[in-house]
Amino acid sequence: MGTALTYQNSMQEEIKSRLKSGNACYHSVQNLSSSSVLPTYSTITLPLVSHRCETWSFTLREECRLRVFQNRVLRRIFGPKRDKLTVEWRKLHNEELNYLYTSLNIVWVIKSRRMRWAGHVAYMGDRRVVYRVLVGKPVGKRPLERLGHRWEDTIKMDLQEVRCGVMD
Q1: Every domain of the chain and the residues it spans
Q2: How many other CB atoms are there within 10 angstroms of residue 150's CB atom?
Q3: In Å, how far are 47, 99, 137 from 78, measured between CA atoms?
Q4: In 3D, which of 72, 94, 75 has the Cα closest to residue 23?
Q5: How wide is the angle at C-alpha 97 spanned by C-alphas 93 and 103, nearest 5°?
Q6: I need a labelling partner for 108 at 20 to 30 A (CA). Which of 42, 87, 90, 164 fits?
């Protein structure tokens, strides 16, 4: 499982390659019976896509791509639904998918892993290089083509989203 790095340090290519791997993984187990596909998604496909996601700092567009991937796979697993009034088959709506698949969505999984890893790094202390990279302030100006958010900013937004306050 290599990591796709770009000159601009964008996670877009990394997420695209993970989603491609997740699709390939899902299609390889798709021929199994429908009762075993959902646990396979939770135990194989989802961890494959979210592997080493703790350091990702993605945009809303990439967050949306992750949700679309999950909903597309879940629609394939649960199949269409017959409408009672029109007696026609239709795709499941996102709310119905969320009701049927009670586990957390992929974005929440990534955010919780990111916050858990930030807690581990904060606990390490200033002797570890990872901690110094997390809390260190680089000298000089950032280039114009930089990402909109740093990893630290992403963690602060995640913490505010779950109402835990901000990280010191």
Answers
A1: 12-161
A2: 13
A3: 20, 11, 48
A4: 72
A5: 155
A6: 90
